[in-house]
Every structure is written in structure tokens, then in C-alpha cells.
Design a protein that fits this description.
421 residues; alpha/beta; Rossmann fold; 2 domains; 9-stranded mixed β-sheet; 15 helices; 39% helix; globular; disordered N terminus; binds S-adenosylmethionine
Length: 421
């Protein structure tokens, strides 16, 4: 694989070791991935997913077949799919319970046909979520067929097919609600209210069935695409609905590949509430998950060993906004706690972090994580910088930290660290 591209500058001195900063286009580096949604990537919307090219790059350059790979903030499960396609074993954790059904559906190996995914929107037994706000999100008229279809899912569907049935059924459920499906966050917009008013004028039961069929057809064709790409028989451990800060690795892994939660990103659990309720989670369970979400959780008690962390903390403090400072602390302290708890069991790390500004201050997340890892005996190997093409702005001066032309363009950084000694 052509791993080198556009080497622009060396990094800071670390003795004789010079890490590199390189501008790359992961899409060009990994040209044999045809699109970001190939195979079973993109079965369901998941905000801030990695593009598979980044994961493939890290797996091919920093691990070999048979190695164990960890993603503690696995989200949709991009790492599980790429690991399976390249013959690596994987451990994936996420607070969001959606992870397990997304990975099970994405790695489905048996034969599947459209008939297997049949759902009865008039099924004899209904399932209604335990959700006090249900009537706020669905008009009463839609609840009847939806509850019957979900009754079929909960009480009649075969266990092995549940993840496959859940995906098109969740899409239908979300569409036939007041939530705006163009926005990942659960949001009742005017556009969505108009959509519901229009649907109520039509034969909505029939439309639900037709939408389900078309989504199920798409799912079957994506699963067949995945199966045609020679996925290997690998071992996989999926833990969904878990707090990665209270977990400790029980086995050694060669490589961590992850894109941690974004600072000031949207709240994942809140965004997936509608899905989680229909899947059978209670209000109390969902509240419990929300309390653990990074960076909205209580900041853990841990020391961040990074001068950049303190430098930027002072600048945030000067803004005089306690909420922002708490998010800043919660974000870094959470990631640091995870690293402190688990770094001894890991040989290499590939951490993908995006650009984040707090009130105009760009926070160098990769630098903070790198400095802390260096204090734990890790070495910075390289940082690959990709440009978010859709938001290209204009060129300015050279960035002193990287020696690269700073295009004032949002960039995403893949930072590679290796254990020394
Ligand atoms: C940027 S997303 C990861 C996306 C993933 N790389 C993908 O390709 O889909 C960050 C993830 O961190 C998860 N998360 C937030 N707090 C967490 C916690 N305490 N423990 C485990 N996962 C957490 C969120 O649920 C979210 O899925």
C-alpha cells in the first residue's frame, strides 16, 4: 500500500526520533475502498463516523492479520467491519447500546433473503415503549401499526434475524415521527410537523409497509456486498451499553484505533432515544447512560500531564463560562482516565481527532493526548492530517506546531503513538 504522500515537514525533536506530520487524503491513500458507505458501512445513520479509509490505513500500516484491535468508542462499529475484512480480531466497546445490533447486522454471514425479513404491521400483539414522551414524538394514528410491527419484532421474530429486522424498522419508525430525519439529533422541526401532517392524509399503513420493504431490500443488498468481499473468520468481542471508563482490558491488543467523542459534539444517547425506547430500553436505563456520556459526565478525578492542556484551560477559564470549562475538563479527564487504565495492555495507538473550537479557540486535542501519552512512556510516530474537503476555506500562514501551511481549513488528525522500550 502506498503509505507515503505529501511529506511536508518533520516534527519536534525527541532525542534522535523525529515524528512526522504529513498532509494526506485518506480517500486517495486507500484507493481500493470504493466509497465511504461500501459493504455494510452506512446501514444506519451514525453521527461523526470515521470514514473506513482511515481505519483501513491504520490496520494495514500498524497491524498484521491475526492481531487484536481495540476501539473503546466504537460508535457504529466501523473498526469491527474493517477488522473483519482484513483478518484482524477485534474488541469494540461503546456506551450506545446500538453498537451491538449494528455490528451484528454488519457482519452477518448467513444467507439472507427479503422474505426472511418480513414484518407484520398488523401483528396480533403490540409492543409500546415505556416512554412518557411517546405521544410527543408520534401521532396516535401511527402508534397503532408501529406498535404491532414492534410487537412482531419483540415477540415473534427469530433471534438471529432481529438485528436485520431492527434496521429497516427503526428507519420507518423514525420517519413516521415528528423527528426531523435530516438531523441526527432528535429534533421536532416545522418541516417534520408538516411531513407528519402530509402523511396523515395518505394511506400511512400501506406507506409504512412499502418503506419497510424498500429499506429491507437495501439492507439485504449491502449484506451481500459485504459477504462478497471475503470477510475472514475472526474473533470479535462486542460490548455495547458499557462505560469505557470503567473497563479494563483483559487481553493484550496490538493496536487501538479510535475516534473518541467530540468535544462539544452532540449527545449520542439523547440522539438515539427514540431508537432505544422502541428497542426496549426504559427511561431509567437511558438516563443512566446519559449520565456517563463524554463530555457531559462529571469530570473524573485524574491528573492530565500535558502543558497544552493547562495552557488552553487557562484560556477557557478566562471566558468565564463554567459550563464550557466543565465540558473541557470532562472531555480530557475522561480520555486520560481511559488511557491510564488501559495503555499498558496496548502496543500502538491510532487516534483520530477532529478540529474543535471553543468560542473561537482551536483546541489542539491531539497535542494534549500526545503529551500525556509521552509522560506514560509512549513515543509519537507520526500525525496524518486530512482536510475536510467540503468546508475548504482560504489559505493563511504556516502553522508553527506542524510546519504546514495552515489553510484555516478544518482538518482531522490521525495521531500514531507507539510504546517505547
Ligand atoms: C465519534 S463517536 C465514534 C464513532 C465511530 N468511530 C464510528 O466510526 O462510528 C464517539 C462515540 O463515543 C461514545 N461514548 C461517549 N461516552 C462514552 C463512554 N463513557 N464510554 C463508551 N463510549 C462512549 C459515543 O456513544 C459515540 O458512539
Amino acid at each position: 500500500m502506498a503509505a507515503r504522500c505529501g511529506l511536508l515537514a518533520g516534527g519536534r525533536d525527541q532525542g534522535s526520533w523525529k515524528p512526522e506530520y504529513r498532509r494526506v487524503s485518506f480517500r486517495k491513500l486507500i484507493a481500493d475502498i470504493p466509497s465511504t458507505t461500501y459493504a455494510t458501512h452506512g446501514l444506519y445513520m451514525y453521527p461523526a463516523k470515521f470514514i473506513p479509509h482511515v481505519v483501513r490505513f491504520a490496520l494495514e500500516k500498524y497491524s498484521v492479520e491475526g492481531d487484536w484491535i481495540l476501539d473503546p468508542f466504537a460508535g457504529y462499529g466501523t473498526v469491527a467491519i474493517e477488522a473483519s475484512l482484513t483478518g484482524r480480531n477485534f474488541i469494540v466497546w461503546d456506551l450506545n447500546p446500538m453498537l451491538s445490533l449494528l455490528v451484528e447486522a454488519s457482519l452477518y454471514r448467513d444467507r439472507v433473503s427479503l422474505e426472511d425479513l418480513h414484518v407484520d404491521f398488523s401483528y396480533g400483539r403490540s409492543y409500546t415503549p415505556e416512554w412518557s414522551n411517546l405521544g410527543y414524538w408520534h401521532p396516535r394514528e401511527f402508534l397503532e401499526p408501529l406498535s404491532r410491527a414492534w410487537g412482531y419484532y419483540h415477540y415473534a421474530a427469530p433471534r438471529r434475524l432481529k438485528p436485520l429486522i431492527a434496521i429497516p424498522l427503526l428507519k420507518v419508525t423514525r420517519y413516521f415521527s415528528y423527528s426531523d430525519e435530516k438531523i441526527a439529533k432528535l429534533y421536532r422541526s416545522r418541516r417534520a410537523r408538516e411531513k407528519v401532517a402530509g402523511l396523515l392524509q395518505k394511506n400511512y399503513r400501506d406507506l409504512m409497509g412499502r418503506m419497510y420493504l424498500s429499506e429491507a431490500r437495501r439492507l439485504v443488498s449491502k449484506i451481500r456486498d459485504f459477504q462478497s468481499r471475503n470477510p475472514r473468520v475472526v474473533e470479535g468481542v462486542v460490548e455495547a451499553g458499557v462505560d469505557s471508563l470503567s473497563k479494563k482490558l483483559e487481553r493484550r491488543v496490538k493496536l487501538l484505533v479510535t475516534s473518541p467523542p467530540y468535544l462539544q459534539a452532540q449527545e449520542y444517547i439523547r440522539s438515539f432515544k427514540l431508537e432505544l425506547f422502541w428497542l426496549g430500553y426504559s427511561e431509567e436505563e437511558i438516563r443512566g447512560l446519559m449520565r456517563r456520556e463524554i463530555p457531559y459526565r462529571e469530570p473524573p478525578k485524574v491528573e492530565v500531564k500535558s502543558s497544552s492542556y493547562w495552557e488552553y484551560r487557562r484560556r477557557i477559564e478566562e471566558l468565564g463560562n463554567h459550563k464550557l470549562l466543565r465540558i473541557y475538563d470532562s472531555y480530557f479527564k475522561s480520555l486520560i482516565l481511559f488511557l491510564n487504565n488501559n495503555h499498558r495492555m496496548i502496543s500502538r495507538m491510532a487516534i483520530f481527532v477532529g478540529p474543535v473550537k471553543i468560542r473561537g479557540i482551536r483546541i489542539p486535542i491531539d497535542r494534549v493526548l500526545r503529551e500525556h501519552l509521552e509522560s506514560l512512556g509512549w513515543r509519537h510516530v507520526e500525525t496524518l492530517i486530512d482536510t475536510i474537503v467540503s468546508r475548504r476555506l482560504f489559505k493563511t500562514k504556516v502553522n508553527p506546531a506542524t510546519g504546514l501551511i495552515d489553510e484555516r481549513t478544518p482538518t482531522e488528525h490521525l495521531i500514531i503513538m507507539e510504546k517505547t522500550g
